[in-house]
Amino acid sequence: MLFIVAALLLLGVVIGTAAHVPLPVTLVAAAVIGAWLLVFALRERQHR
Hints:
Blueprint: H1 2-17, H2 23-47
Helix pairs in contact: 1-2
């Protein structure tokens, strides 16, 4: 649960700065956050 909260906070920071950074940087950050959430979801699914 803590990982999801941290990911959402990080996503909020990235969205807030998206207007100030180039598009490729925003896309890379979004991909990293998406991969992190995907890994978390897979770990949670395997745990059950």
